[in-house]
Specification:
This protein is α+β, with helices and mostly antiparallel strands and about 400 residues long. It is built from 13 helices and four strands. Helix 12 links the parallel strand 1 and strand 2. The longest helix is centred in the middle third of the chain and has 36 residues.
Length: about 400
Amino acid sequence: MRVGQSIDTSATLGALATERPLRIRLFERLRLDYCCGGSTRLDDACEQRGLDLDSVREQLEAIDRDGPALELAPDWNPRQASIDELCEHIVSAHHAPLREEMPRIGGLLEKVVRVHGAGRPDLELVERTFASLRLELEEHIDEEELVLFPACRALEQDTGAVDRGLIDRHRTEHVAVGRKLLALRELAGGYELSRALCSTHRSLLEALERLEADLHRHVHEENNVLLPRVEALFDRSPGEKPAVPMSADVLIDALVELADAGRPERAARLAAAAYADLRRREPERARRLDALMHKLILSPRHINGKEKQMPTTDPDLDVRNEPPARRHELIFETWEGLAEGEGFVLVNDHDPKPLEYQFAAEHAGQFTWDYLEQGPQVWRVRIGRAAKATA
């Protein structure tokens, strides 16, 4: 749609924001979710928010008519940028400032809770929610820079491919970020400055609102610009050079780099997610990722879980004499044969922590994991099938 034409109310919020970034300010003010909810049509979004569609359309048309040509710098147009340029922009414009701002906000929160927290339990909830959001974001942007973005660049250059599951998982994580942002806003009273308890609290509310706005734009530029551009390259015409799968070497190098940056457990969990996706259709690549998980778990940085002292009459599954390539399949087969509430005791000659990550990747919430003995020669873990919760 050209500027000056009537707004198409059946267009999605993401498309409208991408076409003209200045519209984002109105979407923020009206609380219209153009990032995680970017696939929602304008008319449907207005109905959900109880907004008058004609009024919103008129405001958008006024922005198009009276606003500057582009909100962003004239030399930056996300619709014309290459995938490589989009990745670089996201890192410099969003990731780098985020890494600086989150510790500052954490310090403001700590001070506000220390001074005012005794009579305001909501402040502690804000602190906990922000801490959870910060942890998720730190892991998320690390994975983007070490795994997702290199794969996107390789796809653009016809030297690799992006796993669809990786894109789906990033979109799911974006939704989780959006929910935490909503929770923070509600817990912080909508960031109303009139409710500030002191100058530090006022600075905190301003910082949290700026963080929210930047994360909305950050997610929008990934969900509605970068990832659709990547997905458009999935189906290539017959005459084009087909992309080859991202090599195990590239993925392993990225995960090792993440571990060396002080995140061995996160790297092991990502390896487990890749293993779960590959173990049936590409067993050779899966075995290489399995080996990487074991290497990461044995890293001195990794901290083992605590043992549980609990009696058990469950049968033992001793895999110490099984070929390494057969062990995990045998364990999964045994677990799949369990009824709810049943379990078995895995006996192994090393810490089976990588297996726990694989269970979490494939059967989250459906299994139990309790260490009974942790080396140095023998490890014993009770693995069970969780009983379904009753209403």
